[in-house]
Amino acid sequence: VRSVTTFRNGGLLVELDNEALATWIRKPINSKALTSKLGPTVSFRSSAFPIVIEYLPIRIQIENEQFLRTTEKENDLPENSLINIKWIKPVNRRTQVQQKA
């Protein structure tokens, strides 16, 4: 454990010091086992961070779940670390000749 932060509401933020432990705790079977030992009020949440990708070709079907999994694999990201993707500019605001967004 790298650090522990206590919040006013009684919550704790535990920062882990290595990727192996973080990967282990992300697996549902492991987090459930740890929760059963720590008590029913314990829960685990992962952080999500927005990422902006500029100039992505609009022909790419980003709505397809497989796009996220392929992007993770190609960029050596943990499995299921990308949770959501959307276009910044709405599709209905694109020009007829637009090729990237």
Label this structure with key terms:
alpha+beta; 2 strands; 29% helix; elongated; 3 helices; 101 residues
Shape, per Cα inertia axes: elongated
What fraction of residues sit in β-strands? 5-15%
Low-confidence stretches: none
**Total strand segments:** 2
The assembly state of the depicted protein chains is single chain
Order of helices and strands: EEHHH
* Main sheet: strand order: 1-2
- The helix content, as a percent range, equals 25-40%
Describe the fold and architecture.
It is a single chain. The protein is α+β, with helices and mostly antiparallel strands and 101 residues long. It is 29% helix and 8% strand. A two-stranded antiparallel ribbon has the order 1-2.
What secondary-structure arrangement, pairings included, does this model have?
Elements: E1 3-6, E2 12-15, H1 19-26, H2 28-38, H3 65-74
Antiparallel strand pairs: 1-2
What can be said about this structure in brief?
Helix content is 29%, strand content 8%. With 101 residues, it is α+β, with helices and mostly antiparallel strands.
